[in-house]
Description:
Blueprint: E1 8-17, E2 28-36, E3 48-51, E4 61-65, E5 69-71, H1 78-81, H2 84-98, E6 107-110, H3 115-126, E7 132-136, H4 142-148, E8 152-155, H5 161-167, E9 173-178, H6 185-195, E10 196-205, H7 219-225, E11 228-232, H8 234-240, H9 242-257, E12 265-268, H10 274-282, E13 289-293
Helix pairs in contact: 2-3, 2-9, 5-6, 8-9
Amino acid sequence: MRRPGAGEVGIDVAYAGLAGWPYRPGLEVAGIVRAVGADVVGLAVGDRVVAVPGGGGLAEVAIARAGLTVPVPAEVSLRTAAAVPMGLATAMLLLTEAGRFAPGDSVLVHCASGGIGRALAQLVPLLGGGRLIGTVACPEQVDAARESGYDVAIARDDFDADTIRAANDGRGLDVILEPLGTGALALDLDLDLNVAAPGARIVLFGDASGGALDPLPPAGRLIGANISVTGFSHRGLVAGAPQRVAAAIRRTLDLLAAGRLDFPVTELASLADVPDAHDPLADGRGAGKYVVLIDE
C-alpha cells in the first residue's frame, strides 16, 4: 500500500459504508490514522477518523485527502461514523443547501426506505420540519419507513398527486427530494410539479435509474408556480467544494455525539457479504444504511 502523499492521510479501516450505483465501492470509511503526509495539520497517527477516500475504501488501508478526513468524537462508534458521509451528511446537504430547508417546511422524499431516506427521517424533525412524507418501492417497505420517522409512507404503485396532497392535508409540499430511481424523469417531475407548493424546491440527485435524463419542464411552468428545480451531486461537492462536505460531516457527528441523532445501521460481518448486499441496493429493496466490518 502506498504511503500518503502531501495533504493525504493513510487510514487503517475499521468499517466502510456501502452506497448503491452509480457510486464507486468504498466511498466512506472509519478507522484509525496510520500515517500522515506532508502539510497535514490537525490530524495525527492514532486518531479515530471518518473519511471520504473517493473509492477503494473496501480495503484494510485507505488513502484520503486530509480535507475530507474528520475526527470522530469519543461518543460516536466507528461503526456509526462509517455511515455518516454518504448517509447523514449527504442528507444534511440535500436539505440545508440544495433544498434550502426552513423550519416548518413539509418534505416529500422518494425512495424513503434507503440509507438517505432514513437519514432524512432523522434530520427533518430535528431541524424543525413539518409533515414528512415518503414513497417506497413496494408495500413491504411501508411499515419500516413509518417506523424510521415518516408521518406518511406510500408504496409507489399506490400513489398519485391526489394521494400525496391528501397526505399533507391537501397542501403542496415545500421540499421534494427526487433520486430519479423509479421511472423517466419527465414522469417523476410531472408528479412532483403537481404536488409542489408555491415556492417549492425540487432537488434532483443520485440518478439511480441510470438512464439518460429527459429535458426539464418548460420554464414558464416553473416561473408561473414559483418553483425551482436544482441538482445535487455528492461527487461534485467532493471534487469542487470538499470543505462543505467536511462541514456537514462534522455537524452530523456533533449531533450524534450529543445524543440528538440515533442512526441505526446494518452491519455486514465481512467483505464476503458485500456482493449480496449490493443486490437489494441495486433494485430498491435495501433497507437503511449498510456498513461492512473490515477490521475491529
